[in-house]
Design goal:
Elements: H1 4-14, H2 30-39, E1 43-48, E2 51-52, E3 57-58, H3 63-75, E4 79-84, H4 89-94, E5 100-102, H5 107-111, E6 115-119, H6 147-155, E7 159-163, H7 175-181, H8 185-188, E8 196-199, H9 203-218, H10 226-238, E9 252-253, E10 256-257, H11 258-272
Parallel strand pairs: 1-4, 1-6, 4-5, 6-7, 7-8
Antiparallel strand pairs: 2-3, 9-10
Helix pairs in contact: 1-9, 1-11, 2-9, 3-9, 9-11, 10-11
The structure holds magnesium ion (2 copies).
One magnesium ion is lined by residues 61, 120, 164, 202-203, 244, 254.
Length: 274
């Protein structure tokens, strides 16, 4: 199959919908590389969940994309374990996911995954602390899930990360650009890298794009049903999730209504399910 569909997906998800200054951060080609890395795995750990200190809730961006990738990898024969922390676990459960573990030291050794993926999961900054996009210190609310990525790199376990702001796991690959281009970048830029980094306008959209690329590479229809994906976001909101842009308990993802999720999913589907 021509890689051009994946290039088109990459252009779709790279749109800087929130005008965060991520344009120069996009690693062109990484969507296909990440899909090739993940297409044949045995056990993939998927980390997500971003706690917002002001509403005291997890955000709607992250876990829906994690679920989409997890479902796709399971369809391709991999085992998937989701890893998050206590404030975010109920949001995974609200979407019907049961194979969710809370981070604890030694978890990587216990699970022994063949690959790791993070989407919209805080990565520590140079000072060792975790920050929101606004530069607020969220360390006390954030389990050091990113330690699994440090340990995986040490052990040679491959990793993929998706982010949209600069403060997430994976952004260590482009931290100098985050410092230069993103508001509060000097403070929030994560130093935690990944083997493949997908920078998207919205992390969920990056995750859907990765699933589209997996569909393209394998010839399988792996994208989530659009209506179900929107019901999942609503279910998270009903369980307390907040929008990471308005900080309110409402069915928005980074300030965008569910229609934006519909448009991106159908746009990716049109590129790969022909
Ligand atoms: Mg983000
Ligand atoms: Mg986001």
């Amino acid at each position: 199959m021509p890689a051009s569909s994946i290039d088109a997906i990459e252009r779709l998800i790279a749109a800087d919908q929130r005008a965060r200054g991520i344009g120069n951060l996009v690693q062109w080609g990484s969507v296909e590389h990440a899909a090739r890395l993940l297409a044949r795995q045995g056990h993939v750990v998927i980390a997500s969940g971003f706690y917002l200190p002001v509403p005291k809730a997890g955000e709607t961006d992250g876990p829906p994309g994690a679920k989409a990738i997890g479902a796709a990898l399971q369809a391709l024969g991999s085992t998937v374990t989701y890893v998050t922390d206590a404030p975010n676990a109920p949001l995974f459960q609200a979407m019907g996911l049961s194979n969710v573990r809370l981070y604890e030291p030694g978890l990587l050794e216990e699970l022994r995954p063949t690959a790791l993926l993070a989407t919209e999961r805080p990565g520590r900054a140079e000072d060792g602390r975790y920050y929101s996009m606004m530069g607020r210190d969220i360390t006390e609310f954030t389990a050091p899930v990113d330690e699994m990525f440090v340990e995986a790199a040490r052990r040679g376990i491959p990793s993929v990360a998706i982010g949209d702001g600069g403060n997430e796991i994976g952004m260590g690959n482009v931290r100098e650009l985050v410092r230069r281009d993103v508001p509060n970048g000097e403070k929030i830029a994560s130093v935690i890298g990944a083997d493949r980094l997908i920078v998207a306008g919205v992390s969920n959209f990056g995750a859907y794009g990765l699933v589209g690329a997996l569909s393209q590479l394998t010839g399988r229809r792996l994208l989530p049903d659009t209506a179900q994906a929107c019901r999942d976001i609503q279910a998270m909101v009903d369980a307390g999730a907040c929008c990471g842009h308005t900080f309110r308990n409402e069915p928005l993802v980074d300030g965008l209504p569910l229609e934006a999720t519909e448009v991106i999913l159908e746009g990716i589907r049109a590129l790969v399910e022909r």
